[in-house]
Amino acid sequence: MDLKHRVGHRLRRRDRAVEFEATATDPRNVLVVVVDCLRADHVSGFGHDRATTPTLDGFDAGAFSNAKAASTWTFPSVSSLLSGRYPHQHGARFDSDPRNLSAEEFPQRMRRDVATVPDLLGAVGYDTGMLTAIPMAEKAVGDRFEDVSVRYTPATERVAAAREWIADRDRWFCYLHLGDPHVPLDIPDEHRTTFDVPEIDGIDDWRFRETTDGEGFDAYRDAKLRAYDAAVRGTDDALRELLATLDDDTVVAICGDHGEAFWDHPQLERRLNDDPRGYYATDHGHSVFEELARVPLWIRAPNVDRTASDLPVSLVDVAPTVFSALGIDPPEAIAGRPLSEPSNGRTLLCEEIAYGYNQRAAWLDGQKAITVPETDDTLAFKLDTYLEEEPLNAVPRDLEDVLASFGTGVEGAGQMDLDGDTRDRLEELGYLE
Known about the structure:
Layout (H helix, E strand, L loop, with lengths): L1 H13 L15 E6 L18 H4 L4 E7 L5 H10 L3 H4 L8 E2 L16 H7 L3 E6 L2 H7 L5 E4 L4 H13 L4 E7 L10 H6 L22 H28 L6 E6 L4 E2 L3 H7 L9 E2 L6 H4 E7 L7 E2 L3 E2 L3 H9 L21 E4 L3 E2 L3 E5 L2 E6 L4 E6 L14 H8 L15 H9 L5
């Protein structure tokens, strides 16, 4: 499978029509690690009661427990991560409403003239490589890299492959995307014991998606959360040696691309969305509530304080932080800002769901609003706790103005397509039915 991806990738790269120019005054190696489906409140260093992330808890970096993903599913989210733009700005988005990715209604790809981290680093002489266990990441941004490896294997193999790719290179940018916490879960046997994961039918995938009524739900939910934590711990273990062997001047960013829902907001989801699959409050890509939009982010880069912060930041800040660290002028249209700069008073955005009518969320001054543009439904919340509680009686005017300011956005660069093998894997991952 990996060989087929590599050959197809080379052929697509040969037909690229856009070239980018850049200058780096302080070149450093760069590693970006994405842990698919990683929620911030399941990180032990941020207060989770199970020891899920001892490696990341001890990583000497800025640790942001309140980072907002630009979207709640992989395709638009990683496009934003590597471009520093929101989906309505880079074009990796659907061109119609409602959406139904499960019926193979695919989004547009990112516009070719949008500069990304691998584009600009490649322009200044870096070797650029993507190693991923999630094919949706390759479909989103794989064409921006010189080398691409797609294998549906656990974190131990993907991390080993990344270390091998890095080993013989002088100046490099490595993007590593791990899929263990994404269903079907990859759960190391030793951590089934660590977290007392019981043997329950369907624990690696999903049950109780249409309703939580039915015998055994409470036991299943508890087991599911333990299994998810075990998969996170396995990923964290796999990263230990990789992080320990990096030079201290290597710029490192580690994050979730979105979170995962575990029956957090079933009634509010039904109020805002008529999911074409009939699924509510599980998985991801169907809402912009905090369980999906809030992710952890670790950054080790010059001028970024190596401390913990719960101030709201965005994954669109990763690309400008990398550019700043390397002395590369960022593209003019970039939406993010370097994480070395103050983050107070910013408006942050999450958008582009994959099932039902599109939703947008905006955060401002400790409050959040979610709107469904096609239906004009809007709810607002105070965020005194991790998750949204009951909506406010009215939407604050400043949040209404913010949501109205974004506009409809740009068109993408042609619809995403699939080969048969990738389609089969996306079906296994739950994207398609």
